[in-house]
Amino acid sequence: MALSDNATLRALLWMVACGVLFAILNMVQKLLTQQLHPPEVVCLRYLVGSALLLPFVIQGGWARYRPKRPSLHAWRGFFHVGGSLIWFSVIPDVSLAEASAIGFTGPIFMMLGASLFLGERMYRARWAAVLVAFAGVVIVLWPGLVQADIAALPTVWMLVSSPLFAASFLLSKVLTRYDRPEAIVFWLGVVICTFSLPFAVFAFEWPLRVAWQWPLPLQWVLLGTCGIVGSTAHYCMTRAYRIADVSAVQSVRFLDLVWASIFGFLMFAHLPTVWALAGGSVICAATLWIARYEARHPQEVKA
User: pLDDT at position 31, please?
Assistant: First the structure.
């Protein structure tokens, strides 16, 4: 079968590319948040990403990039900026492998969100996947929880960001019905840059103080890299969701932990802990199993 004839295979390849790019993106963002005010990194990362897309917007014309559902773009930006502010603030204290392992909960939250807001049915197999994934999360967090370690709090906060990102990605799936992938990516950057600007300028503590500091030339290069890699990653993800169902492309998510472990070791000399690998494997197994189950039992999914 030709590659162009197999929609699911093409979607899976888009998701593999997305996973590699997000691993590179997370590596660079972790480096930047160790040097700059984390919300500033959020704001500038998405500002640069949308700025780099401007030539394509001008060439494509307003008709191609005009948002047909502005309110959905705004809501997506609201959820995504909330997740991003939390994620960027805690990533300096969390290894990339741990972040990737917790990120595996995203598809589970997406499944729950699809049931609550998009009318998809939650049958027994889906509830089983949710419970198994929750057990995986407990495994990842267990060392800090059992010792009541304050260092475990960043990992818990990263878990809080996961349902916010899941809501954003669900809205991205909805937006593919109305807008082109490149338009969705462009407007995400514009909305997040706007919403995150106050947090980037000020440190929200009392007394209120200005936290903004202008990046150095090398940091601008890294921000440009984030803009290019991040926009490309979101484009790949949006293309995958446009081609196939969300559940159909989750089977390659286990590779995200591999990429995160490789880049975390190369850049920060971080080796993934046994708990992160074990918990991430359990979460990913739950995601992979439910994806395969739904592919084999489409009549139950549609019932």
Answer: 92
Q: Please tell me the number of Cα atoms within 13 Å of 39 on its side-chain side.
A: 18
Across the chain, which distance is largest between two alpha carbons, in Å? 64
Q: Residues near 80 by Cβ (< 8 Å), separated by ≥ 6?
A: 164, 165, 168, 188, 191, 192
More confident position, 255 or 246: 255
Listing DSSP states for 23-40 in one string gives HHHHHHHHHHHTTS-HHH
Beta pairing partners, 203? 209
Residue with more model confidence, 197 or 249: 197
Both tokens of 158, joined, read: 């990263």
Q: What is the DSSP string of 104-145?
A: THHHHHHHHHHHHHS-----HHHHHHHHHHHHHHHHHHHHHH
Check residue 146 and give its pLDDT: 63
E strand residue ranges, the chain: 202-203, 209-210
